[in-house]
């Protein structure tokens, strides 16, 4: 036993010694690998300057923006199209999708169109949003940046699908993209597409849209506001029990001096329909289906910014106000009718009206009508193309003499009217009295670059829906759009331009034939055969759909006071809408351009401005140039506000064979007299 104990003790000592030796060996290895303090190890240390330089180079490559001439964009839908807020000679196009019946393609191209040079340029940058469609963007509040949010993307075979919730800022000058991270407690809006954005002061307004999942499509009615000064999203709290628009997508959201204005939209709501077969008891069963709804209601979002002495990060107050149904709205109601903002108006083009024959088939009517919605009057005006008028040499010479005579009188009258203002507010040397210009200062100067003339047609582009619209310098640009025939879907590969002041034809910027449809056409032929066999059923379904559309529009309007006839209601509204024409302000004449209108009425407008300044500020604080600028802005606002009525008068005079209407007062100013036999010749 003693020998066994001694043997075990010896083994234990051997194991302990072996472990100690092993630890010593490991420690020695570590000490060999570790550099000594006295050694010069700069070569082995990491060079921080080199690391930072390499990082800067990688970041530069990541942020590097390249811009090169390009062919016009390939056909695409659900893209975004915007006039540059920093350069009145550029248009921006971003993103979009194209489906040829077999494969869906999504893009993240940023195209810039130079108007004067008729040149497309493709901007590429590694730091750009991912490919998408159905997103929204707008210019920033009180800034010249462009902000983009959301959108959607799917795989080529549309097997996978998802929405974005990222937020981006685009510098229109440098073309640089920057992803914006929100600092607010509300973070950012949920992912979506089909929403709309607009701007107000230093805010960006976002509303609506939809979220598509594998089971259902959820339409949204949440309101979000982004503050461009605090870089934070917030979801404003609405007053209790206040009204707000129904959930929707594909609506129009336009800027307003006191907030934003919303019109129309589209959604699908649950509805109960008959099952088609009766039960033994005699009553038919019912089931729930999703029915399309096209809205025609109008909402005003009133935004009240915080007071100047409010604490930091104070949120603006907002609430929705439901407006009356517009006068002369598009009939029948249509979805996919896009709208662009222009000087207090919404310019609408295209759209589609669907008549749902059954759950399997839909009969669609497409439009190429151009409408102007006067936001303040809440009234729609149809816009028609007009061939340019030609004037004789005598008429042109007489008009020039009249303008020169009026110009001399205007100079003397203006200096007299400004005397009181100048006495109270001395002018700087740079603001010395000068001859009043009867035309718009810099904006009306012809561009130094020679503009390229494009072929002009006197008919609107082919009917379509979801066309991309943008207005730059009073010219409407129409890009792309979609048209359906049976089960085939065509994306237009073209762009047009239309002068909203003259309406003297549509210019074709570029046009290419749509690509061939890659999907199956068997279903289309079957549908056409069924259409031929069931003609009477189509008429009945159309009647039912018309009734449904009427009921939808009734639900979308305010519960108005009971009136005996609908025509009486429209008449009363039209009288209210026409009231601004009798405001004792200078009024445009038929066939009078903005330049001529201001040349004729410049003194009156400046008197109006001087009178208002005298009553409001005592005449202090405004120079001569500032007064003239305000006067021209007021005249321009009046000219566009009356544009549709004046064009209607021009059409009436043209149909009646009436030539140019000459004012006797103007003729007297230009020719030294307006009476006598000569004026009756």
From TrEMBL:
Residues 516-542 have a biased composition (Acidic residues). Pfam families: DUF4110 (PF13422), Kelch_KLHDC2_KLHL20_DRC7 (PF24681). Residues 1-28 have a biased composition (Basic and acidic residues). Residues 581-668 form the DUF4110 domain. Residues 670-681 have a biased composition (Gly residues). Residues 544-560 have a biased composition (Polar residues). This is DUF4110 domain-containing protein.
